[in-house]
Amino acid sequence: MRNLLALFLIGLASAAGPASAADLAPALSELSFTSRQMGVPVEGRFKRFDAKLNFDPKKPEAGQVSFNIELGSVSLGAPELESELAKASWFDSKKLPLAHFQSSSIKARGSNQFDVAGKLTIKGLSRDIVVPVQLAQAGGITAASGGFVLKRLEFKIGDGEWADTSLVANEVQVKFKLAFNGVPAL
Predict the structure, then answer these.
(1) Cβ(11)–Cβ(69) under 8 Å?
(2) Which of 133, 154, 137, 161 shows the shortest CA–CA distance to 145?
């Protein structure tokens, strides 16, 4: 169903890093997505996710980020849709509860912007993605924000009858804002 997407979530992304380990501040972080069902936007979010970040803005190429999303934590504001997404044709979250992103490289683009490349794995299927990330710091918190388009059918999200893209669009817009403590000054 709708949204399937969500998946998107995945991904996610994040910021960068090497030298020092940073801690995710979950209460200040968010992971959302927008899919289209029969042309109508459907918005959702994931309530539970975790990220590990090692990053020094002066050496971004040495950075690493990993990100896990609990697929069963999807929230669409409609319990019947959320239970549908748990099914095998969508997230199969009982059998495969996590989506995972692992960075392979981080490249600075200037003005506190970075391209984070890596593998996104959902439902046991992995794809290479590049996620543009913008970093900002205030009050000891580093916010990594960005987004990307996820193609749900590449991960068999919305399999079977739901593979018809006139019902549920293949493209899912994923957006994130991840807040970290412990990142060195930009």
Answers:
(1) yes
(2) 133
Q: Give DSSP secondary structure letters for 125-152.
A: EEEEEEEEEEEEEETTEEEEEEEEEEEG
Closest CA to 132 of 150, 111, 117, 119: 117
138, β-bridge pairs: 141
How far apart (Å, rounded) are the C-alpha atoms in residues 16 and 53?
Answer: 7
Sequence-ordered list of residues with C-beta below 8 angstroms from that of 164, at least 6 positions apart, any chain: none
What is the CA 40 to chain-centroid distance, rounded? Answer: 22
Using DSSP bridges, classify how beta strands 171-181 and 30-37 pair: parallel, antiparallel or unpaired: antiparallel
pTM of the predicted protein model: 0.86
58-78: b or e for each residue (b if 16 or more CB lie within 10 Å)? eebeebbbebbbebbebbbee
156-166 per-position pLDDT tens digit = 999 999 999 99
